[in-house]
Amino acid sequence: MNAVKATIPVLTAATLLLSSATGTYAAAPDQVVDRETVYTLLNSDGTVKKSIVVDWLYFKGNGNVTVTDYGQLQHIRNISGLEKPVVQNGQIIWDAEVKGERSIYYSGETSQPLPVDVSINYYLNGKKVDAPSLAGKNGTVKIEITLKNRLKQKKNISYSGYKGARHSVEKELYTPILSLVSLNISTEHFTDMKLGDAMTVMSGKTMSATWMVVPNPEETITLEMKGTDIELEPITITLIPKLPPVSEVPVKEQLEKLTDGIQQISSALDQLGDGANQLAAGNRQVKNGLNQLSEGLGQLNQVNQAHEGLVKQSLETNRQLLALAQNLAAEKPQDANLQALVQGLKGQQQMLKMLAEGGNLQGKPFPGLDKMEEGLKGSKAGADKLAAAAGQLEKGSLQLKTGIEKLSGGTAEMKNGLIAGLNKLYEGEAILHQSKTAAEQYDTFLGKPKGAKGEVRFILKTDPIEPVKVKDSAGQKPDTGSEEENISFFEKVKKWLSDLFLNP
């Protein structure tokens, strides 16, 4: 028992010592910012020669803190202090003493593929050549720089369209990578430059040309110039996960109002078309009624003509009977019956004549059957004209309805086209928003501490194209090391990066 009791203090002390040595009691920082700059040396054709990540860890806190960064790096170097990280399983663990705020700059090599593949082709007088063979030559040089975005992803994008209708579409999107391609061109070696959309600045005898593209998924920059004793400075490519500023479409509100107006016109035309259809139906009924009236008047006229023929026949018969009765009465003037018969036949003759030819009856005009025939014929002709007019109205109403239907169809097509265009506009805005979000989320190349705010930039540089120079060893100054001791930290970083890019 005493042996066990004696062992406990020893184990406790050892545990505390080990805990202290491994940093168990180191606190997490209050805030961490991780800014990565990836410097990549490219061969002249754009293939990667070497990539070095320079990571700036900035954190706030007090006391001994531990920051765990992530990334597969080789040859890690602290370029801002003496601390050395613990590297294990893709973790880069830093223990540092912090008084308010602290920065650690460190570098390391990586073989991780860049987000953009670069391919560069060179032509001399129309013939494809490798870059080194251009040095010292004369002729027309053409350079094609192709950037291909590798950050492809499928996204299901939901958005509200016209009148709030919900839409969903699956799109293949690329994380926006703003790419600045720069080349300094000596006017002593090159003339007749065709630089496309490059932004140019003259500095002495050097023209600085910069192209800005966003490969989605691919962009090619082409430049052409006439060279003498050709030398080319390195091509520098800066990659920034960012979407260039895009102004809002100012016509969206006007298009929405126009679509609403077309919708109202379409509804009004539908109502007008229904009215034209009803008008055509009404005119059809009037026409049918007038046709029936015309048919009835025709039949009535036929009856009238039959009556007129009968009356004329009766009038002739009565005239013959009257003549016979008058002859008999003249032979027998004393016969009262014959006298009465003559008077009766005379009265009947007058009535039949009035029926046939018309006249006055009890002081009022009485139309004859011949006048009635004229009236019936006129009425039938009028009914036929009215029926024809009603038919024309029906035809016109149907033509109006057809025209309205065509106009309504064109208006509906216009409305549908505007709605489809607006929906495409809404879809484009949703895609733009998704792309912007993807660019914001691409804030690290290798990984960052948990909860850290990240930022990543890429600087790519090709080999220069120049005649091979033989170094004069006799002219080199001996490296005493004293100069390096006297320069500041930031000058050390600058010198280190300069050595990295100028003397790879």
UniProtKB/TrEMBL annotation:
Q: Known InterPro entries for this protein?
A: xxxLxxG_rpt
Q: Is Signal found in the keyword set?
A: yes
Which region is the signal sequence? 1-26
> Key word Signal present in the record?
yes
Going by the UniProt record, its keywords in alphabetical order are: Signal
What NCBIfam families does this protein's entry cite? xxxLxxG_by_4
What is this protein called in UniProt? Answer: Uncharacterized protein
